[in-house]
TrEMBL record:
Lineage: Eukaryota, Haptista, Haptophyta, Prymnesiophyceae, Isochrysidales
A Pfam match: Aminotran_5
Family: Belongs to the class-V pyridoxal-phosphate-dependent aminotransferase family. NifS/IscS subfamily.
Required cofactor names: pyridoxal 5'-phosphate
Protein's UniProt name: Aminotransferase class V domain-containing protein
InterPro entries cross-referenced by the UniProt entry: Aminotrans_V_dom, PyrdxlP-dep_Trfase, PyrdxlP-dep_Trfase_major, PyrdxlP-dep_Trfase_small
PANTHER family noted in UniProt: CYSTEINE DESULFURASE, CYSTEINE DESULFURYLASE FAMILY MEMBER
Aminotransferase class V domain span: 6-286
Organism (species): Chrysotila carterae (Marine alga)
Length: 302
């Protein structure tokens, strides 16, 4: 038979992308190549370009990673891909980036961009797909003519208005808000690393601020069970772990940390912490105190 249509993506995408591509591949509808991220969670544009085949029709690489906050070189990826194969479509999942770092679809050179309402202050249940003017897509759902015929079904005007308002605020507040997020995130990282020491902690992701989101802190605590820590602190601290586990031996490290080759003793102790618009320095200090005390309790085996 004819060669299958080919997609290039990365091995640190959100499951919403990877699970979808894997399902389509298992149905025999396309083939997919996952480009490996480096140890900082960054995907190289040259690696994406090298993965292109004569049958590639789509490249989908996230704008920023949801676990470690690495911001991908989307403009460079678009430029390299389009110079080699102008007809290939570029999509980026920008769910984590809107309202935290500047986003301009023209500068990025993308054909499509996904954004999600609840990541930028809108209610849950609303998002948007930016589609470059002139790009014709087949309907996702058949029936009505809503959303330019692409997705049938009556829209919620309430949610759409909320998304628009959130987008306006995100643009207006971008500079002060990202500064606030970075200051609170950096204090949290400083408090934890200075108390526990450089050998017992490892910040996952890029160290260059230009390559990372301002609000995300993925920090590995050596020899600690992040799952146990979160369970103990569940009524006082909102965070997630880099490993899902019932016991340390049977623990499964997240696909992103595995892709970045984070050493297991840090991966099992990885916490994903985020600061936001309403986070205060007092709350940051409270969170740091809780984490430090629980790490020390675990170390004593109490």
């Amino acid at each position: 038979g004819a060669p299958l249509p080919h997609v290039v993506s990365s091995n640190i995408e959100h499951p919403a992308v990877i699970a979808c591509l894997d399902a389509l591949a298992s149905e025999g509808r396309l083939s997919v190549s996952y480009v490996a991220a480096d140890a900082a969670g960054l995907v190289a544009a040259a690696d994406v370009a090298a993965a292109l085949t004569p049958h590639t029709f789509l490249v989908s690489v996230m704008h920023s990673n949801n676990e470690v906050g690495s911001v991908q070189p989307i403009a460079e990826i678009s430029s390299m891909v389009k110079s080699e194969m102008p007809h290939v479509l570029i999509h980026t999942d920008a769910a984590q980036s809107i309202g935290k770092v500047p986003i301009d679809v023209r500068e990025l050179g993308v054909d499509m961009l996904t954004l999600v309402g609840h990541k930028m202050g809108a209610p849950k249940g609303v998002g948007a797909l930016y589609v470059r003017a002139g790009l014709k897509l087949p309907p996702l759902l058949h029936g009505g003519g809503q959303e330019a015929g692409r997705r049938a079904g009556t829209e919620s005007v309430l949610l759409l208005a909320a998304l628009g308002a959130a987008a306006t605020i995100a643009r207006t507040d971008l500079v002060p808000l990202s500064r606030h997020m970075r200051a609170t995130r950096d204090r949290l990282a400083y408090r934890i690393t200075s108390a526990l020491g450089p050998n017992a902690t490892r910040v996952n992701g890029p160290h260059n601020d230009a390559q990372r989101l301002p609000n995300t802190l993925s920090i590995g605590l050596k020899g600690v069970s992040a799952a146990e820590l979160l369970h103990t602190l569940r009524d006082q601290l909102a965070a997630s772990a880099g490993a899902a586990c019932h016991s340390q031996e049977a623990a499964t490290v997240s696909a992103v940390l595995r892709a970045m080759r984070v050493p297991r003793e840090y991966a099992l102790g990885t916490l994903r912490l985020s600061t936001g618009r309403h986070t205060t320095m007092r709350e940051v200090d409270q969170a740091a105190d809780l984490i430090i005390a629980e790490v020390r309790r675990q170390a004593k085996g109490v």
